[in-house]
């Protein structure tokens, strides 16, 4: 074309220039990138018509460009800040040119990015929230499908991200208008299954401060707590190696409903119910009794409550609903705390102000029945032989039976003996007044032993004397045994 310019008259060249300028072959240039770009990003230009050359300047300084199949591209980017970019497209021989100028901004700083979301969930999706640069484009990959959003004018964004079952490793990417990117990652577990929970404590325990042992299996950390009789007790505990021990604190003897609640990090909850019987003793007065309590101490308590007119039901070894109702009624009439517990306050109320009492003189082998300080009657009795002496000290009447059955005690002398039913020949006669510890006052058919040391520790009376004393001596009466 330069040779053409030398050989062709200027008038002819002017005509050609007019032809290119007016037709589809006229050169044109436009910016093919955004006005805001990354500082290191190349500039791209698009041209139209017939363009032999493109001259680009940034703030008046020439910038090298390369022609590509889809346009032109600079060999370098802009520095941070604002710049004036100009481009001039030249047609054949440089006769016709087209020029454009743009004001552009280069940004080399990636956007800030803060992300938050629950890390464990039982739902099909999770909300990912956070902050970035105003109008930043946010993309989350790694879930069931990609999620996209644009930050608002304050930079806040929120996306609902669908999750796959199990572990989801999410990648959060924030891109500003210049194309700078910041990436963050998070691990979110979708868990829709509750923990597997099992209580390993036996149904009955002999401790008044029991501990519930629990096995809990889950893919995440499990926290566990206990509820006792409908009320939460103790603190939450984390299962260690799939197990945890939950102290229940002090409990009265009786039946208690224990619920163990296990919750995993996704919020899934499992509950296990356990009926726990606390039975620490058979001796009345040692333990506080509550509903469902069992044993000889319950039988003694019900007899004592009956003696005071507080109960008219059967005397059994279980503190059932009817007995518990009687306990509450008795507490109310005695101006006691109505808690349904046979504890120290109720026992003291049952045992105080009893006029009847007994003094046993072991050496004289006599039993004296008293009303207050007044001596009413004195009886000859048999006491324990030297190998099995009647124990000294103060006791109370804890048990009363009509026509008792003799059961061999847990002692070497009775090891080969059998149970003897009520009736003639029974070693206990027709009445038994129990003082605790297998010691009691009872009748005997062996009247010739009265006045001697012949028993294995008990106090023997004639049949008639024992029956008389039985009627006069209520439950809880004091019995003092002297040397």
Summarize this structure as a short list of keywords or feature phrases:
single chain, 483 residues, mainly beta, Immunoglobulin-like, 5 domains, 5-stranded mixed β-sheet, 6 helices, 13% helix, 42% strand, disordered N terminus
In short:
Helices cover about 15% and strands about 40% of the residues. With about 475 residues, it is mainly β.
Biggest pleated-sheet summary: 5 strands, mixed
Mean pLDDT: 89
In spatial order, strands of the major sheet run 2-9-8-4-5
**Helical coverage, percent range:** 10-25%
Residue stretches low in confidence (pLDDT < 50, at least 5 long) are 1-8
Strand % is 35-45%
> What is the oligomeric state here?
single chain
Top-tier CATH class of the largest domain: Mainly Beta
Tally of helical runs: 6
The separation of the N and C termini measures: 146 Å
CATH topology of the largest domain: L,D-transpeptidase catalytic domain-like
Shape: rod-shaped
Strand segment count? 36
- Going by CATH, the architecture of the largest domain would be Beta Barrel
CATH superfamily of the largest domain, by name, is L,D-transpeptidase catalytic domain-like
Structural class: mainly beta
Instruction: Write down the Rg.
Output: 50 Å
Number of domains as seen in the coordinates: 5
């Amino acid at each position: 074309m330069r040779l053409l310019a030398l050989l062709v008259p200027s008038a002819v060249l002017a005509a050609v220039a007019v032809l290119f300028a007016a037709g589809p072959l006229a050169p044109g240039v436009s910016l093919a990138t955004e006005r805001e770009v990354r500082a290191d990003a190349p500039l791209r230009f698009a041209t139209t018509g017939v363009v032999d050359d493109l001259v680009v300047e940034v703030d008046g300084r020439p910038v090298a460009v390369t022609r590509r199949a889809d346009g032109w591209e600079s060999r370098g980017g802009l520095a941070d800040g604002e710049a004036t970019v100009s481009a001039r497209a030249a047609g054949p021989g440089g006769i016709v040119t087209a020029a454009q100028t743009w004001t552009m901004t280069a940004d080399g700083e990636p956007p800030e990015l803060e992300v938050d979301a629950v890390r464990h969930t039982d739902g099909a999706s999770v909300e990912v929230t956070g902050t970035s640069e105003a109008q930043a484009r946010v993309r989350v990959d790694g879930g069931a499908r990609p999620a996209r959003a644009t930050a608002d004018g304050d930079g806040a964004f929120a996306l609902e991200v669908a999750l796959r079952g199990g572990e989801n490793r999410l990648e959060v990417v924030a891109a500003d208008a210049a194309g700078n990117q910041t990436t963050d990652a998070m691990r979110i577990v979708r868990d829709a299954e509750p923990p597997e929970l099992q209580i390993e404590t036996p149904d009955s325990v002999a401790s008044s401060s029991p501990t519930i042992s629990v096995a809990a299996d889950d893919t995440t950390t499990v926290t566990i707590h206990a509820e006792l009789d409908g009320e939460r007790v103790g603190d939450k505990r984390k299962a260690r190696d799939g197990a945890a021990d939950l102290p229940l604190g002090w409990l009265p003897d009786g039946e208690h409903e224990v619920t163990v609640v296990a919750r995993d990090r996704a919020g899934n909850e499992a509950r296990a119910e356990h009926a726990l019987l606390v039975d620490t003793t058979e001796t009345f007065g040692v333990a506080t009794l509550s509903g469902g309590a069992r044993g000889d101490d319950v039988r003694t308590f019900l007899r004592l409550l009956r003696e005071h007119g507080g109960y008219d039901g059967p005397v059994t070894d279980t503190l059932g609903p009817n007995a518990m109702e009687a306990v509450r009624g008795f507490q109310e009439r005695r101006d006691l705390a109505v808690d349904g517990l046979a504890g120290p306050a109720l026992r003291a109320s049952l045992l105080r102000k009893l006029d009847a009492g007994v003094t046993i003189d072991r050496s004289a082998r006599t039993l004296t029945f008293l009303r207050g300080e007044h001596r009413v009657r004195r009886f000859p009795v048999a006491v324990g032989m030297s190998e099995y002496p009647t124990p000294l000290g103060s006791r109370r009447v804890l048990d009363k039976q009509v026509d008792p059955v003799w059961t061999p005690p847990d002692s070497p002398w009775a090891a080969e003996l059998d149970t003897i039913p009520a009736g003639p020949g029974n070693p206990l006669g027709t009445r038994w007044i129990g003082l605790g510890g297998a010691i009691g006052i009872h009748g005997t058919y062996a009247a010739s032993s009265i006045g001697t040391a012949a028993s294995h520790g008990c106090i023997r009376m004639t049949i008639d004397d024992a029956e008389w004393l039985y009627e006069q001596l209520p439950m809880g009466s004091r019995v003092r045994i002297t040397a």
